[in-house]
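Q: I'm building a small set of examples for a reading group on sequence design. Run inverse folding on the following structure and report the sequence directly after it, with nothing in between.
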């Protein structure tokens, strides 16, 4: 069983930056694709970014491409989301997710991921 704990959320002014962290436990971190999703009030949870097991491959939603950077440190069992140039529409609860070890599938869909953190609130004021 994988446990994920997000941190780093908070209140920031538009144009500012935040770095989210997700600490994983339960083993086999380096064999799992990691993802970030977010959910705003009255909206569906949506894909933000994903990163391959080695960290060599990343993918981003069009709305965050060029502003957000996902990374991972397998030695620390941690995945990060660096968020720059934040906008009010980025306001949401951000969730860290992990898939099953070396699990194939579409990385942009929620159903791919087996494990989820409880989320961290990001609020961007105008």
């Amino acid at each position: 069983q994988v446990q994920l704990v997000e941190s780093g959320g908070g209140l920031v002014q538009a144009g500012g930056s935040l770095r989210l962290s997700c600490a994983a436990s339960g083993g086999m971190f380096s064999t799992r694709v990691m993802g970030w999703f977010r959910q705003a009030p009255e909206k569906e949870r949506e894909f933000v970014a994903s990163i391959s097991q080695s960290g060599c491959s990343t993918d981003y939603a069009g709305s965050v491409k060029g502003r957000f950077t996902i990374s991972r440190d397998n030695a620390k069992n941690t995945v990060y989301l660096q968020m720059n140039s934040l906008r009010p529409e980025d306001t949401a609860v951000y969730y860290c997710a992990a898939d099953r070890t070396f699990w194939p599938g579409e990385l942009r869909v929620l159903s791919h991921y087996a494990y989820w953190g409880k989320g961290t609130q990001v609020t961007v004021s105008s």
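The chain is about 0% helix and 45% strand.
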